[in-house]
Amino acid sequence: NAYGPDAVRFYTRRKTITERWPAAGAREGTAFSFPSHQ
């Protein structure tokens, strides 16, 4: 279920990581979001 509590938790964790470590978070976030959105 892509829109359930787990998805929200995953997104929030991603966002927090990106905010704490912008360079690492951006690299990881790009790797995670592009394949899944295509």
UniProtKB/TrEMBL annotation:
Listed name of the protein: Methylmalonate-semialdehyde dehydrogenase
Protein's organism: mine drainage metagenome
